[in-house]
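INFO worker-7 received task bundle
INFO bundle size: 2
INFO processing item 0
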Amino acid sequence: MLSKRNFGSLMTVDAQGDVTDYVDGFKRLDACRAHYASVGMPDSYIEGLIR
């Protein structure tokens, strides 16, 4: 799912239409960094993949 293009944030709303959460490119990058670090990739390698 993280490989799909993101053209803006994805917002989750409740039944009343109030925003309860969002996912944007920055949150996706943070999730990628956390996953790669959890499987043992070095930080310098992770930054090379993302940048």
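INFO item 0 finished
INFO processing item 1
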Amino acid sequence: MLKLAKNIYIDFSKSPRLTSVMLCLFCLPAVMLALTAHADDKDPFNIITGVTWQRDDNLFLVPSNFLLSPSFSRADNITTAYVGAQLDKLYSLQEFKANFTVTDYRYQNNKSLNFISKNYSAAWLWNLTPYLKGTLSADRQQALNSFQDYRSFTLATLKNVRVNQAQHFEADFSPHGVWHLLGGVTHTEATNSQFFIQQNNYSQNSLDAGVKYDFRSGNSLRLMGHERQGIYGNILDPTNLSDTGFKEAEAEALLDWLVSGKSHINLRAAYVTREHDHFSQRDYSGTVGRVDYNWMPTGKINVTFSAFSDLSSFWNLDSSFTRENTLSISPSYALSDKITMRADASIYERTFLGGGVIPSSHRVDKGESASIGIDWKLWRSLTIGGNLARSTRSSNIPGLDYNDTTAEINANLLF
């Protein structure tokens, strides 16, 4: 309760909306002070905060004729607020980077999905000598599993939060600055808060080794080999072909090619093989790759063309992995030094392959997505923006088609 004058009080407990307004008014001087501070992304330490409001007309990505439980709402308004800190500090030859963010997700209609995520990344870019350097890093990402694949629509299991964690060490030895000897180790973990056999819990250790060659033109070619061993977070189940572990090998080539002053290509080509400890029906192997072509015809226009093909584990009763092929284009145009328009369009085909418990249904999904947005840097510390997106999926399996439209506005503050 706040006393304004003699015998005049305001009881905030009886007026939540008034509480929010008064808090905003009380915080306004601090916000204005932050805006006048000369903080930017080049400072060694920054506080970041922001809020996003999003309207999603098909949150669960279901067909228009799908009957949801009365406990759920097909459309929702989602408010996301975050606060965090960033560090980027150079000490002699050593550089330290860190980023920690707490994000609060609030759903207006489907309140059972509310959750708070805590994400971080940290890296030590170490240099022992001018010829020997590397990176020691760790990161953690926590997010709600997409309803594109997770389809358990019960109140007890609706919210399925996935946590991905990784710790990585790599070394780069190059006595002449042309040839590089590369090596490293990586540990990754992924866990779901609910049972999700299609994208199972697992932990994995990886040994990485390779060479890199730097051309005088500024281009580079890297050849890498990876040996990985993983453990799934489930018990051995012959009935459902649920395995306990796997071994994976990958050989890849990566080309970083500066075509001209206005265009740049990143190319990755690899061959991957995964073998499981007990059930060969879950094994897969094949070629994967990605190409990104970035074109800047003027100082205001930037266009990126991308194409990739990937294999990934995805256990169903009638399949064991997927191949996804995607094409996309992402243009942006700087209307001024403060306002940028951006867009994105993509198409994909996802094929479900491999053996399973029952004969294959030969599932194939095809999808399209498009979005347009704007970012406006009001001050050095404050950026606001908006985005409108549309996505669709069609499948040869009944009940998996959907159309989804989202609209959002956001504001981000750095100080």
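INFO item 1 finished
INFO post-check item 1: The domain at 45-414 is CATH 2.40.160 (Porin).
INFO post-check item 1: Residues 271 and 287 are 4 Å apart (CA to CA).
INFO worker-7 idle
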